[in-house]
Amino acid sequence: MSAVRHRLLAAAAAVPLLTLALGACGYGSQARKDTASEVVPQGAKTDGLDEVKIGFFGNTTHATPLVGIRKGLFQKELGGTRVKSSVFNAGPAEIEALNSGAIDIGWIGPSPAINGYTKSHGKSLKIIAGSASGGVSLVVDPKKIKSLADLKGKTIATPQLGNTQDVALLNFLAQRGYTVDATTGKGEVTVQRTENKVTPTAFQQGGIDGAWVPEPTAAKLVSVGGTRLLDEKSLWPNGKFVITNVIVSQKFLKEHPKAVEAVLRGSVRTNAWIRSHPAEAAQALNDQLADPQIAGKALPADIIGPAFKNTDVIDDPLAATLRQEADHAVKAGLLKQPDLKGIYDLTLLNKVLSAEGRAPVDDAGLGSE
Questions:
Q1: 230 strand-pairing partners
Q2: Strand ordering across the sheet containing 210-214
Q3: Half-sphere exposure of 88 toward its Cβ, with a 13 Å CA cutoff?
Q4: Is residue 97 within 8 Å of 114, Cβ to Cβ?
């Protein structure tokens, strides 16, 4: 098969942002009931652990853990150590769970990863891999907005003040010469912060003229008459920018590197399986979303199909784009200049990639000493 990109649905975790920290986009703030893989642990325990606790969101931007758990690929790598998973609705709760030891490893968006790292003064977490890229679009009402030149005077929604998409829209508007107050969202274009779950209704009722949103919200807007005016991938080199990372507690990384390596091996092999089995992966993903302990509802075919194709599964965390996203937030006045040195530790990921016959990935100078 050629270098076809088999993509995932993206949605980032949402966190309110003041000038001290970035947020992330999401659907709430509490962890749902723990849900465990149905695959029975077998063999020797990894690092002597009874379990490894992982966290993720119940949406398709987190297809790697969702599909990997569904297919037993993480459990296979951990042997007799049980995969214990917890589902979160947004970044703050997941970061809190990581800090408290309720989870050891998590899938999360770039903004909460930056937030967690900077608020702990570099002590809480490390980004150890990428998971998803892309999956964000500007979807508009074609009757009101026919081109990018028509944005003046219009109202465009983002998931939340300071979240990843909010920063991206503010940066885009500034580059095109529009004046917008980053905090209030008022200006030549109105930026209206609206939760993803209510954005389609607001769009249908005419309360907003468009939205800069991740999947599946973008696909939902298209399904009710919206038009994709811009794919954010077009704004990034090679069309790639990080939307989901893998993070780990620094304490757990230091004490249980073999377990972390096993989870990363499961992540890399899950992504490879997704890329080589796109139809089966989409079905496995939707089946897992239907689990009442995760999302409780599968996505309709006209939404899961386009959304799944719009985001790439990746192993590379695309570190340079994380730095750039942080710079955009600083320029918007939503973030003080963060010190991101040391936020990455890609040692174990590169060990796994080497064993798979693949080239190492780069930390853009933001790795550990």
A1: 138
A2: 190-193, 155-158, 210-214, 136-140, 227-231
A3: 33
A4: no
User: Please, are residues 328 and 171 in contact by the beta-carbon 8 Å criterion?
Assistant: yes
| Residue count of the chain | 369
Amino acid (1-letter code) at residue 76: K
For residue 127, what is the DSSP state? E
Is the link from the previous residue into 216 a cis peptide, with omega within 30 of 0? yes
- Give the integer Cα–Cα distance in Å for 285 and 216: 13
Does residue 196 or residue 208 have the better pLDDT? Answer: 208
Question: Measured between alpha carbons, how far is 175 from 56 in angstroms, rounded to an integer?
Answer: 33
Between CA 172 and CA 189 the distance in angstroms is 11
Spatial CB neighbours of 53, under 8 Å, sequence gap ≥ 6: 84, 85, 86, 102, 103, 104, 105
pLDDT tens across 124-179, in order? 999 999 999 998 999 999 999 999 999 999 999 998 888 888 989 999 999 999 99
Residues 6 or more apart in contact with residue 238 via CB below 8 angstroms: none
Q: Which residue has the tokens 């702990």?
A: 120
pLDDT in tens, 252-293: 999 999 999 999 999 999 999 999 999 999 999 999 988 888
To which residue do tokens 């302990």 refer? Answer: 293
Give the whole-angstrom CA distance, residue 32 versus residue 38. 17
Contact predicate 307/299, CB 8 Å: yes
Nearest-angstrom CA–CA distance, 214 and 219: 9
The model's pTM is 0.82
β-pair type (210-214, 125-134): unpaired
DSSP class of 222? H
Query: Tell me, what amino acid is at 25?
Result: C
Structure tokens at 347: 């040692």
- A 10 A CB-CB count for 356 gives 12
User: Of 222, 201, 364, which Cα lies nearest the Cα of 300?
Assistant: 222
> How high is the pLDDT of residue 160?
83
Task: Say which residue, 297 or 270, is predicted with more confidence.
Answer: 270
**Cβ-contact 24, 84 below 8 angstroms:** no
- Please give the structure tokens belonging to residue 245: 């990372």
Q: 245 forms bridges with which residues in the sheet?
A: 108, 130
